[in-house]
């Protein structure tokens, strides 16, 4: 068996204070003003540090509604239902239907080391598989009351180590955690 260097998953995501990443219908308009106000929340530095992005079909479908394609790294969409990637994106996006472990092994074999993991269900699945090394979660000062949750049920506790927290004039509060076990 050939040895492959470690590959790690990394989360960079915004959530309402009550833990939702989108409204139930996928709406993220409540989030957009914060990304347009010129405050540096570290997204560019984070994206420069990763080799590729694994996202769920839900997040991919949302990204398709934006006027421009947002990502400058290879994107892997995890889906068991999606069959084709729309023409212009075919060179930038691939579909993966395997388990999180198998997807990460494939990406490691391609030379990737740091992978951005995005989408609520996908993050939960990668956390369960212990494939996430750290998470930067930016809390937005709003209570949505319902929506698509960032976190969900797990079989066992996942211990975290708090690395640091920054608060911004806009009211955003960003915390970094490493997965401790
Ligand atoms: N606030 C933020 O910063 C932020 C960031 C990212 C996304 N979002 C929002 O979050 C929403 C999407 O999140 P989401 O939680 O609904 O979906 P998601 O995690 O993006 O995608 C979930 C889908 O991925 C597929 N999948 C394949 N393998 C899977 C696995 N092992 N575990 C789980 N899913 C797997 C399934 O689709 P198939 O049925 O095709 O298999 C599943 O329905 C969108 O509205 C997006 O705008 C917000």
Describe this structure in words.
The protein is 20% helix and 31% strand. It is α/β, with parallel strands linked by helices and 181 residues long. It has one domain: Dihydrofolate Reductase, subunit A. It has an eight-stranded mixed β-sheet with strand order 5-4-3-6-1-7-10-9. A two-stranded antiparallel ribbon has the order 2-8. Strand 3, helix 3 and strand 4 form a beta-alpha-beta unit. The longest helix has 10 residues. It is globular. It binds NADP nicotinamide-adenine-dinucleotide phosphate (NAP).
Short description:
The protein is α/β, with parallel strands linked by helices and 181 residues long. It is built from 5 helices and 10 strands, in the order ββααβαββαβαββββ.
């Amino acid at each position: 068996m050939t040895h492959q260097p470690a590959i790690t998953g990394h989360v960079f995501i915004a959530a309402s204070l009550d833990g939702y990443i989108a409204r139930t219908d996928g709406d993220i308009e409540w989030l957009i003003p914060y990304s347009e106000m010129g405050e540096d929340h570290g997204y560019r530095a984070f994206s420069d540090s990763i080799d590729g992005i694994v996202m769920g079909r839900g997040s991919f479908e949302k990204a398709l509604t934006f006027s421009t394609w947002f990502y400058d790294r290879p994107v892997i969409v995890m889906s068991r239902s999606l069959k084709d990637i729309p023409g212009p994106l075919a060179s930038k996006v691939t579909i993966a239907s395997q388990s999180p472990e198998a997807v990460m092994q494939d990406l490691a074999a391609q030379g990737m080391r740091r992978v951005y993991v995005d989408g609520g269900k996908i993050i939960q699945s990668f956390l369960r598989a212990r494939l996430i090394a750290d998470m930067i979660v930016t809390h937005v000062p709003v209570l949505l009351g319902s929506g698509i949750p960032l976190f969900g049920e797990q079989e066992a506790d996942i211990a975290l180590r708090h690395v640091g927290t920054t608060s911004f004039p806009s009211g955003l509060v960003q915390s970094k955690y490493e997965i401790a076990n």
